[in-house]
């Protein structure tokens, strides 16, 4: 288990990281990658959209280019403070403090569940993905962006020590075990490191 | 939060409905109050309009 898979540690880590997060974040996850990931989704009229692990609201901002309102959740109030500065507390984003693994939303609620840069901190990704499936409407889409497992052994050891990394086979296994269908993967990254992120999009079964 | 949000919220622990208690309003926004699980009785605070639905073991006052 990586050192950040413990939620309390992740919380403490983000308390400090939130101060600089938006400055360092574009190096691994930028607007171009965000737009590419968003293009994999279908947004029905008046779509109910949930952003799990919204953090400072970078993805939320992209989602708002497609829908009028977003439901957002994060476990770190320090990260959320930054998001409040961007969108206000009573604007188009409905904020919730909460845990990705134990979502406070009713079954069959969302057309789209999005989560970027959060899965690497989940202690039990399959359990969390099952929660995503539960809150998704039948046929609803789920999109998760996480760190792709590095190719080099030394980087792999470092990666394993810090947090969860996974490849497309592992992503496929996790999503299918959690009960998703139509599971697809895409590698994303800036030109100098094109495979740094793995984006998975899947659908909740129709019945 | 809007009171209508209650329709899609549930207790993160047992997924039962939440009831709003001690609500203070600013127009149609609930700015403070407590969400109480109708089944297990767990209480979740609403502060400055934002519901804190973290399970008790993950709240800020819980030692890391």
From TrEMBL, chain B:
<dbReference type="Pfam" id="PF03966">
    <property type="entry name" value="Trm112p"/>
</dbReference>
<protein>
    <submittedName>
        <fullName>Methytransferase partner Trm112</fullName>
    </submittedName>
</protein>
<dbReference type="InterPro" id="IPR005651">
    <property type="entry name" value="Trm112-like"/>
</dbReference>
């Amino acid at each position: 288990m990586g050192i950040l898979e413990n939620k309390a540690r992740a919380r403490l880590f983000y308390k400090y990281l939130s101060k600089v997060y938006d400055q360092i974040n574009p190096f691994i996850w930028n607007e171009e990658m965000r737009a590419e990931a968003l293009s994999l989704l279908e947004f029905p009229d008046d779509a109910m959209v949930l952003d799990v692990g919204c953090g400072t609201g970078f993805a939320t901002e992209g989602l708002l280019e497609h829908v009028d309102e977003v439901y957002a959740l994060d476990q770190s109030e320090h990260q959320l403070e930054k998001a409040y500065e961007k969108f206000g507390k009573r604007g188009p984003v409905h904020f919730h403090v909460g845990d990705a693994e134990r979502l406070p939303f009713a079954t069959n609620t969302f057309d789209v569940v999005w989560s970027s840069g959060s899965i690497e901190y989940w202690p039990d990704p399959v359990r969390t993905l099952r929660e995503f499936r539960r809150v998704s409407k039948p046929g609803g889409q789920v999109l998760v962006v996480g760190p792709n497992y590095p190719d080099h052994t030394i980087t792999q050891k470092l990666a394993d020590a810090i947090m969860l990394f996974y490849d497309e086979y592992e992503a496929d296994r996790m999503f299918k075990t959690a009960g998703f269908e139509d599971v697809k993967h895409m590698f994303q990254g800036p030109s100098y490191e094109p495979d740094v992120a793995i984006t998975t999009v899947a659908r909740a079964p129709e019945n | 939060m809007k009171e209508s949000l209650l329709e899609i919220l549930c207790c993160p622990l047992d997924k039962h409905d939440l009831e709003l208690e001690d609500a203070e309003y600013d127009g149609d926004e609930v700015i403070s109050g407590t969400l109480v699980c109708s089944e297990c009785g767990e209480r979740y605070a609403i502060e400055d309009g934002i519901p804190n639905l973290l399970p008790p073991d993950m709240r800020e006052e819980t030692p890391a």
